[in-house]
Amino acid sequence: MTESAKKVVLAYSGGLDTSVIVRWLREVFDCEVIAFAADVGQKEELDGLDKKALSTGASKIYIEDLKEEFVRDFVFPALRANAVYEGAYLLGTSLARPLIAKRQIEIARAEGADAVCHGATGKGNDQVRFEMTYMSLNPSIKIISPWKDDRWNLRSREAMIDYAAEHDIPVNITKKKPYSEDRNLLHISHEGGILEDLWMEPPEDMFVLTVSPEKAPDTPTYIEIDFEKGNPAAIDGKAMSPAKLLDVANRIAGANGIGRLDMVENRFVGMKSRGVYETPGGTLLWRAHRAIETITMDREVMLIRDSLIPKYAQLAYNGFWYAPEMKLLQKMIDESQNDVNGRVRMKLYKGNCTPAGLKSPNSLYRMDFATFDEDAVYDHKDATGFIRLNALRMKIRAMKRAGEK
Is residue 344 a contact partner of residue 357, using CB atoms and an 8 Å limit? Predict the structure, then answer.
């Protein structure tokens, strides 16, 4: 528990937790509070944030556009790794937190602040992601985590809603609709409240980025995506910046009902938790990336890279973005992406997203070798010795068991 602080930089979203925390920091620490809101694609959620932060007690607020950095330096590296946590989650929140925390440390240094603060609870993953980054980038900074502070007596969302009402703090959440949302350019997550009942199907009015597959267009949408060294570079022949490309992909995929996920995941702190995610553009790009790799990556290189996916995803999910092992993994993965260049045509239809065409200057696919028609480059008899040599150890084992000499 941090006993004192003179100037605190707070990771501020304007949501329930951080809106209350501004006032709480002033009361408990009698300190100056500087709010920092990272624009990583929340869109209208940032409207009026400056006035709200100042009116609730912050002395200053930074609102910084980090969308391009977020996609270029966090989303795309994870995409090159095909990173999915527990086979499903595309790490939308996990990838944003280390960027926010990094910039928070930079602002603290510029402002001469002696402490940083976040609003993550002691039950979740975000506390780890924030604090691991703080410690990696500035080991001497004081860290204030209200939910783990004995002086924090707001132990439920209902209590914070009451506190906000008592102190005239405007919040966009009610007791009737208490689930939590976190949005960035890669996804929006929905957690808590009514979603804690695993038998409860998510209500349709909860979804923001995607239409339901049932209401998606009755005709398929085709989209072409160009890749350069594993990174998406253009849509339908038009080159775009990373953030712009992901934004366009979100709109196209979301309109076709792509990217919804309802899963129970294992949090780093040990408990299982349900998350409902919308990742339309990320899902589209991930599937397209896997498709272009099928013709551009060597089989054994792909096997090694794929074996690293669970570890990469685990490190990102658990907050180890700036750990040395993550740096090593990224270098290995990026080396595997040098020839991942080409174009994928994707077919989008009522929640489905499938490749409908592939081409690449680095393609390893040879029709003359793969064809089932007559060819002049492959001798079928070569397969006889190939099979015999690969089966030899199993043949010897079977002979031993049968008592054969």
Answer: yes
Give the residue ranges of the chain where pLDDT is below 70: 173-178, 375, 405
Confidence (pLDDT) at 273:
96
What's the pLDDT at 170?
Answer: 85
**Count of Cβ atoms closer than 10 Å to residue 53 Cβ:** 26
Nearest to 68 by CA among 99, 34, 26: 99
pLDDT at residue 277, rounded to an integer? 98
φ, ψ at 239 (rounded to 5°): -70, 140
Contact 5, 29 (CB under 8 A): yes
Q: Are 320 and 311 in contact (CB under 8 A)?
A: no
Q: Which domains does the chain have, with CATH numbers?
A: 7-67+91-176 (3.40.50.620), 182-359 (3.90.1260.10), 370-401 (no CATH)
* 3-class DSSP string for the chain: CCCCCCEEEEECCCCHHHHHHHHHHHHHHCCEEEEEEEECCCHHHHCCHHHHHHHCCCCEEEEEECHHHHHHHHHHHHHHCCCCECCCECCHHHHHHHHHHHHHHHHHHHHCCCEEECCCCCCCCHHHHHHHHHHHHCCCCEEECHHHCCCCCCCCHHHHHHHHHHCCCCCCCCCCCCCEEEECCCCEEEECHHHHCCCCCCCHHHCCCCCCHHHCCCCCEEEEEEEECCEEEEECCEECCHHHHHHHHHHHHHHCCCCEEEEEEECCCCCEEEEEEECHHHHHHHHHHHHHHHHHCCHHHHHHHHHHHHHHHHHHHHCCCCCHHHHHHHHHHHHHCCCCCEEEEEEEECCEEEEEEEECCCCCCCHHHHCCCCCCCCCCCHHHHHHHHHHHHHHHHHHHHCCCC
Q: In what order do the strands lie in the sheet with 188-191?
A: 180-183, 188-191, 272-278, 260-266
Encode pLDDT of 3-44 as tens digits: 899 999 999 998 889 999 999 999 999 999 999 999 999 988
The residue among 111, 164, 110, 120 whose CA lies nearest residue 143 is 120
Q: Cite the active site residues.
A: 17, 97, 126, 180
Sequence-distant (6+) residues with CB within 8 A of 240 are 233, 234, 248
> What single-letter amino acid sits at 227?
F
pLDDT in tens, 272-318: 999 999 999 999 999 999 999 999 999 999 999 999 999 999 999 99
